[in-house]
Design a protein that fits this description.
The chain is α/β, with parallel strands linked by helices and 238 residues long. The protein is built from ten helices and ten strands. The strands form two sheets. An eight-stranded mixed sheet has the order 1-2-5-6-7-8-10-9. The chain is globular. Iron/sulfur cluster (SF4) binds next to α9.
Length: 238
C-alpha cells in the first residue's frame, strides 16, 4: 500500500531540538473504542527505569492529542516496506531543511520486533544519503541484538545506539562494550562515576544546551559511522 502526502507529512516531522527529521511511535498500548489496541512499541524492551521516568508520560498528560497522532503514526509505520520506502526517499529529497541525518524514533522503540528491523533496512537502502540515528533497547534480547548487527550495522548509513539507564547492571555494560559497532547512550544519572569502566563522551546538546547540535555532532551518537569509532555518550538529565 502506498502513502498519501498527508501521511508522509504526519509521520515524518521536523524536530528543532535535534535539528533533523524524526519518526514517532506509541510508547504504551493505546485502547481503541472498538475494543482492540494499538500496541506500544516499548512494551517488549523497556526497563523499569523507562517505565517510571519516561518524559513522554508527562507530555501525554499535557497533550492528549498526542495519542491520536501516535495511532496514525503506528498505522503508517506498519505499512512501511520495500514497496513504498521509495516514497519516503522522494519525500525527504523535496525538503529544504537538512536530510543528511534523521532519527528513528524520537518517541517509542524502532526495533520492537524482527519486521521492524527489515522496515528500517528497506528505508535505509532507499535513502543512502541520509544517516539514520537508531537508539534502541532491543539489544537486551540476544536474537534482536544479532539481527541488528547482521542487518543494520552492516549498512553505512545506520548509526545504532544501545540505550542504557541506571537500571542496567555491570553485566550489561561488560557485554555491550565489547560488541563491535554499538555506540552506547546513557541517560538518568549526571554524576561523573555513573558510567562504569570507560571514558564517556559528554553530549554537547544536553550538557552545553547546544540545540540542534545532533545534526553536526561527530564524537557522539553518530561516531561509529562518521569517524569509525564507538562512543559511550553520557546525556545530562537537566
Ligand atoms: S551526543 Fe551528539 S548526536 Fe548524541 S544526543 Fe548529544 S549532541 Fe546529539
Amino acid at each position: 500500500m502506498l502513502y498519501t502526502k498527508d501521511e508522509l507529512n504526519d509521520m515524518i516531522r521536523w524536530g528543532g531540538d535535534i535539528g533533523m527529521f524524526q519518526i514517532d511511535r506509541p510508547i504504551n498500548n493505546i485502547p481503541l473504542d472498538d475494543g482492540t489496541i494499538v500496541r506500544g512499541s516499548c512494551n517488549r524492551f523497556k526497563t523499569k527505569y523507562c517505565a517510571e521516568t519516561c518524559y513522554n508520560l508527562k507530555l501525554y498528560r499535557m497533550y492528549p492529542n498526542m495519542k491520536e497522532r501516535d495511532i496514525r503514526c503506528e498505522r503508517n509505520w506498519q505499512k512501511m516496506g520495500k514497496h513504498n520506502t521509495w516514497q519516503i526517499a522522494e519525500h525527504l529529497s523535496k525538503k529544504r531543511k537538512q536530510t543528511k541525518r534523521a532519527r528513528f524514533m524520537s518517541r517509542g522503540e524502532a526495533c520492537a520486533n524482527k519486521q521492524d528491523v527489515f522496515r528500517i533496512k528497506a528505508l535505509a537502502e532507499d535513502t543512502p544519503d541520509t544517516n539514520w540515528w537508531l537508539p534502541t533497547r532491543a539489544w537486551r534480547n540476544g536474537y534482536m541484538r544479532m539481527l541488528i548487527e547482521d542487518e543494520l550495522m552492516t549498512m553505512p548509513n545506520v548509526s545504532v545506539n544501545a540505550s542504557f539507564d541506571p537500571s542496567n547492571d555491570e553485566h550489561d555494560w561488560e557485554v555491550m562494550q565489547i560488541r563491535h559497532g554499538w555506540n552506547i547512550m546513557f541517560y538518568g544519572d549526571d554524576s561523573p562515576d555513573a558510567i562504569p569502566f570507560s571514558k564517556s563522551f559528554a553530549c554537547p546538546k544536553t550538557w552545553k544546551k547546544m540545540k540542534g547540535h545532533c545534526s553536526i555532532c561527530k564524537g557522539g551518537c553518530f561516531s561509529s559511522t562518521v569517524i569509525n569509532r564507538q562512543s559511550i555518550v553520557h546525556l545530562s538529565e537537566h
